[in-house]
## 1
Amino acid sequence: MPAVDWQAELAALKTLSADIGNDPLLTQGAGGNTSLKVDGTLWIKASGTWLAHATERDIMVPVEMAPLVAAVEAVDPAAEQAQQFVVTELNGSGLRPSIETTVHALMPHRVVLHVHCVDTIAFAVRSDCAEQVGPRLKGLNWSCVPYARPGLPLALAIAEHSGNRPDVLVLANHGLVVGGETVKEAAALLADVKARLRIVPRMATTPDLDELARLTAGSDYRLPHSEVAHGVATDAQSTALAAQGSLYPDHVIFLGAGSVIAKGNEDAAAVVKRMGTAPVAIVFPGIGILMRGDAVPGADAMARCLADVLARIPADAPVRMLTEEEHRQLTGWDAEKYRQELARRAQKKIA
């Protein structure tokens, strides 16, 4: 691709990234990532940055593909440290590449978009995901990839499905990946898949804001940034699903394992006392949710995401929750600790 063309494509990717990042039904907070391959260099979103900021901040990091792909093929732990392969002289931001850089590097497409589309996730958390999405994706070259921890394990899982060079990947308990030769082509495919997998959500009742104000007494809790987030509590079916555990990685990273459900007449202070710690979010069935006062914006984004996803899962759906071992892999991972630290630094700047 000529220099002028790839620069125009990178600019187009940034515009598309911002559009994706500003749609909470496609990605939330620092989740999701986009990339462009140019003459052996992979330009990919930096870890901990928001796609929504793509046109106003320098969030794309250049990575040398050949040694990174070689590390993945050798199952070398170095592949988990994508910052080792950054083209330093082009990395003005000094940031690390996305934790899912290996996934983008292994995709054969020039442009790759990875999103946490809530409609897709509502299918991806089902044990019968492939059977459910198959008819909807008919005519497309797609694959359903079993759950694997983001990073090298996910890249290796995707590699097992690379034989047919799928353009669409539905990642179990995670999200969606699409690829194309141009930004325009990838954007069109993403829009097509999103439309095909659209699910009409259940309507939740209105939260009881007066009661929530009472429940914050003596505690450092507040209302969530989005009123949509209350749906986890005001829709009984969603509450029952939330009580079963965690559905996808970013929930664990930003909200903790599972969901904390208040009991009986507990207020926020009583829940904290019972738990022995202050959870990031508390679900008050039939009333609404409260967020811890210092919760980062990414946590609020994930609180809304949970409500959006749960409202799209039928009561009779066979749902697969993340296991205890999968929780442990996420919370003890250096790449995620780095992403959380960036979120905390951003929160301090806002404060």
## 2
Amino acid sequence: MIAIARPPEDMQEDFSTREVAQRLGMAVRSVQLMVDRGELQAWRTPGGHRRILRSSLDAWLMGRGLAPTKSAEPPAPVETQRKLRVLLIEDSVHYQNLVALLMAQEFPDLELHTANDGIGGLVMYGQLQPDVLLVDILLPGIDGAALVTSLRSQPLFAKCELIFVTALDNQQREPYTFALAGLPVIHKPRLVTELPPLLAAAVQRLTAAAHAG
């Protein structure tokens, strides 16, 4: 962590670790680890509390193609003001392109967003609050199973449709059974045939829930 002295009047320009965690939709410990790894710059108050530089957080967000904190806006209601959002967390450019192509052809009314790794996916989830989450099991930084376990601790996740995608066969998936139980899993070689019906069913459930609400 970078320890720098800052005048008290600048404190409102920076964030506490908890405030950053809330903005990114992550656990406080995850943000602390980002500071320890040098991904975010922070300083300490005279009382020993961490303050994360707003400029550092904005740079981290923009480096991942995300909106900086100053322009962040609350999400609009699904049923009236925006399209249903799909977040794909996948590190393979090939499969990113394949999913984008399938959605453009089969689901042009859905809004697709893509994250290249688990940490970026957690941040985008917190910002976007997607309606459907497509997540690979094996990801850089944090695997998909751990990512989903982390998200399940958040109340908003209860409204999200989840679909796993993976190149692992049934035997290779056994270590991830705790996260996969009861959830649809697409084997990547069958992505073209299996994703459209699963996604259509998810959209149908979301639409019905929106009308019921």
